[in-house]
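Entry type: protein chain
Record version: 2
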Amino acid sequence: MSHQITEKTHVLIIGSGPAGYTAAIYAARANMKPVLYQGIQPGGQLTITTEVENYPGYPEGIQGPEMMIHFEKQATRMGADIRYGLATKVDFSQQPYKVWIDDEKIIETDAVIICTGASAKWLGLPSEQRLNGFGVSACAVCDGFFFKGKEVAIVGAGDTAAEEALYLSKLCTTVHMIVRRDAMRASKVMQERVLNTLNIKIYWNSETDEILGENKTEGVRIKNIKTGEKVEVPISGFFVAIGHQPNSDIFKGWIDMDETGYIRTIPGTSKTNIEGVFAAGDVQDKNYRQAVTAAGSGCMAALDAERYLTAKGLV
């Protein structure tokens, strides 16, 4: 094994969505000289979101990727050291903590801010993976445009699924919505909108048996869980909206998490069970999952880290 490069820093921020960049802005302004590694998806989930209309300060709305460029530029201007690279392993057994980047470089740090976010969940069908990018997508808002005037299917029953079904209904001729139970999990107002939209057809108590097509999505076979009856529907696009998985695997065994893998923070703070390790954004928030709440928690994490380092006499 080659000799690994080790570098020392006060604050290491892992991840680069609204939480990571906001933490970097605050930490840099507090003169903590933060180092931020952007991870596998620089800018996070917002880079696969087109129009963001609910972030304060953008009266006309803004494209998700553009907004993340603004965040990054601001953090850089404040003096944050922003780098490409993926955290692949951690050792939180003693101070300074160690974090491996791309399995080759070790960062020794006094404080860690985890902002690794969450990723879309998939059904786990081989056909879904094979046709991913060929009509199969986990982001209707990103890819719905390509299916203008065509028939599509969407699987899911929560607010996101309802929102995406409504979005697709404005573009597509028919939206076939596959719901596992006999009811939706979405909020009442969202359910009503879906039920009142004429070109959304709901399949209750149903699951996706198979996505059909060789090189592109051509249909879906839907199975009724109660009767076992199967029906094939011709479609051009298939959207998966069944929730998210927090990107927290490398912290397992160190950091307290819930059964799904969301990091537990002490209520009202960004503190984890390990002192000097903080978490912000969607990796610790399965409730709100908004850009604005992620940014707010990134600010909290930077302030918590600053107070921690000051109390320890490290900055």
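Comment: The helical segments are 18-29, 64-78, 126-130, 140-143, 159-169, 188-195, 291-311.
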